[in-house]
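Good morning N.,

You mentioned wanting to compare the apo and holo forms, so I went ahead and generated the holo version with calcium ion. This is what I fed in:
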Amino acid sequence: MLLLVLFLLVAQTATGVFGYSASAATWSYTTQTPKPSKCESPFVVLRARCVFVEPFLKSPWEESRYLCHELNSELVVVDDVQFYYDLLKFIRGEGIDHESYWIGANDTETEGKWVWVNGKAVESGSPFWAIGKEDYGSYYLEPAGQTSQNCLILEAERAHYFNDRDCIEEHATICEKHFQ
Ligand SMILES: [Ca+2]
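and this is what came out, ligand included:
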């Protein structure tokens, strides 16, 4: 009988120790893991924003967005002229300006109503959108693709001005990581 009581006591103690260890291990994990750096490679800081320009993988717009999500980021929102300038300067400086890049806006939900992935409206006209020239000489402002072109791209052939393209075309990607 005494042996049985001793056995139960030891078993209870062992259980208690195990439980304590598990919680201690959890505690030490959460407090000792280093805080992640704000903008780590392959992302770079441009105009105080954290972006990743991926020129090699070509994908439809939705897959480009998925790629960004996999990197805990989102397709880039180019809503600031100075940031736009720095982004283009970076692309040219890196020698990767032969590619066109999907960025984070579309007019899929309502034709002609361009919306960034953060829900804000895309600014129309200059200095963002490309100007086209008809064969007979007159000029027009993009976007002009109507319902056949619903995704926003920085188009290489248009000096990386904004243009609307068919979302299923395969192009390079620019992601942006948010800190807040
Ligand atoms: Ca459209």
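The first helix runs from residue 2 to 32.

Happy to go through it together on a call whenever suits you.

Best,
F.
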